[in-house]
Design a protein that fits this description.
Elements: H1 19-24, H2 26-54, E1 56-60, E2 75-79, H3 82-85, E3 93-97, H4 99-106, H5 109-120, E4 130-137, E5 142-146, E6 149-152, E7 155-156, E8 176-180, E9 185-189, E10 206-207, E11 211-220, E12 226-227
Antiparallel strand pairs: 1-2, 2-11, 3-4, 3-11, 4-9, 5-6, 5-8, 6-7, 9-10, 11-12
């Protein structure tokens, strides 16, 4: 009786190999990954650059000017869209650049770009021309400092002057005569008032164009991770002057 089974031709893999090894060998997988690695790194670099340039930037805290709110080595996230969509508010923590520093960076765009990217990812200290402070005076305000107490439009700013429980680190005895903040400019100060170089000194008032973004969350170290809230200033007594 003839064999009714279909005549199926079996294809044998090459000697010394198996079907699985011929298509999924570890060496081939590693080789494929190595071949694709430059492309993956380029894509990651471009995505990080776009993210840092337009949306969110990680910022490394290099000094003690914002103690106790921010310590040296802390990392915060900065919303770069904040001031494209709205106006800075009193009490917000902002990152801004020095105009002279921007001109210096333009002379070597490649080096400044690589450093900026590393700083933007929180992997390196920021440029010496980048600063982080708190907005104290708004455009049109009249600001005066008497014995370390900030007065806005003739009224003392309701902020803690002690290290116990408040966001400020101690109290200084600084004095500054009354001055009107120009239009489109902001008066900024560090929370560590005795150890902060800010609008009271060489920095002066900050123009709107210098603002990079608003710091909104502390992400490192993990045990202190928190949202950076805005102090509850009394805007009725510290309102912008007419």
């Amino acid at each position: 009786m003839a064999d009714a089974r279909p005549n199926i031709e079996r294809v044998e893999p090459p000697r010394g190999t198996s079907e699985a090894a011929s298509t999924h060998s570890p060496a081939r997988r590693v080789g494929g990954f190595i071949a694709e690695l430059p492309v993956l790194l380029l894509v990651a670099f471009v995505l990080a650059l776009l993210l840092r340039s337009f949306l969110v930037q990680a910022f490394y805290i290099p000094s003690e000017s914002m103690v106790p709110t921010l310590e040296i080595g802390d990392r915060v996230l900065v919303n770069r869209l904040a001031f494209r969509l709205g106006e800075p508010e009193r009490g917000e923590i902002v990152v801004f650049s020095d105009e002279a520093g921007a001109e210096h960076n333009a002379a070597n765009p490649l080096a400044s770009g690589l450093r900026s990217l590393a700083a933007g990812l929180g992997l390196a200290p920021p440029s010496e021309q980048d600063f982080i402070k708190r907005v104290i005076g708004l455009p049109g305000d009249t600001i005066e400092i008497i014995d370390g107490v900030v007065h806005i439009n003739g009224e003392p700013l309701p902020e803690s002057q002690a290290a116990d429980g408040g966001y400020l680190s101690g109290r200084d005895e600084s004095f500054m005569p009354a001055q009107r903040i120009p239009d489109d400019e902001y008066f900024v100060m560090g929370d560590n008032r005795p150890r902060s170089s800010d609008s009271r000194s060489l920095l002066g008032t900050i123009s709107r164009d210098q603002l990079i973004g608003r710091a909104f969350v502390l992400v490192w170290p993990f045990d202190r991770a928190s949202v950076l809230s805005v102090p509850d200033y009394d805007e009725t007594s510290a309102s912008t002057a007419d």
